[in-house]
Amino acid sequence: EAGVVQSPRYKIIEKKQPVAFWCNPISGHNTLYWYRQNLGQGPELLIRYENEEAVDDSQLPKDRFSAERLKGVDSTLKIQPAELGDSAVYLCASSQQGNLNTEAFFGQGTRLTVV
Amino acid sequence: AQKVTQAQTEISVVEKEDVTLDCVYETRDTTYYLFWYKQPPSGELVFLIRRNSFDEQNEISGRYSWNFQKSTSSFNFTITASQVVDSAVYFCALSEGANDMRFGAGTRLTVKP
């Protein structure tokens, strides 16, 4: 069974340009997460979806970041415009349900470099 | 507010040595879950274990073991007879209440042949 799939793996863009990341969760997982991982740090939650509903986006910088999960399956995370400080690895994860006791399965991430 | 501290930034051992990775957490809730994840160079976080706050039994899985002590708010991870393939960054994480997993800063483990 395929795991969480993310694309692209790497992205280099100039500041002020837009960028988008795509995530395909594990089949049957209705909870989807986007995390940002800065160099040398642990992942930090940006947004969590239960099906197509964003139930926790308190950490998402809404002035430049947006996310969608229109059909409750795939999701995209967008940054517009990107800033130098956005350079990080963006991780997508999914789980069967959004309870405390369910482990999340992670994709390999998209490494974003803003120059 | 919940918080996870992994005081060891980097650890280096020689193959076959035992190594313990420390994790200390803070929470006001009585119901919470603790996790350990492994992040190899490929970047994908791999789930290792989940523990709920009501189960303080230690767990052993092959060369891996976990020691959960509520009295000291610690959830330490020991690798016995380490191998080169164990080299990775290891993250401890905490979930409580309505909050999602909060990760520690991670411990980079290097196992030398």
> Helicity level of chain A, as a percent range?
under 10%
Task: Give the class of chain A from helix and strand content and strand pairing.
Answer: mainly beta
Q: Describe the largest sheet of chain B.
A: 6 strands, mixed
> Could you name the ranges of chain A where pLDDT drops below 50 across 5 or more consecutive residues?
none
User: What is the overall pLDDT average of chain B?
Assistant: 92
User: Structural class from helices and strands of chain B?
Assistant: mainly beta
Uncertain residue segments of chain B: none
Please state the CA-atom Rg of chain B, rounded to the nearest Å: 14 Å
Spell the H/E element sequence of chain B. Answer: EEEEEEEEEEEE
Cα-based radius of gyration of chain A, to the nearest Å: 13 Å
Helix content of chain B: under 10%
Note the total helix count of chain B: 0
Tell the overall outline of chain A. globular
What is the mean predicted local confidence, pLDDT of chain A?
A: 92
Tally of separate helices of chain A: 0
Tell me the major beta sheet of chain A.
Answer: 7 strands, mixed
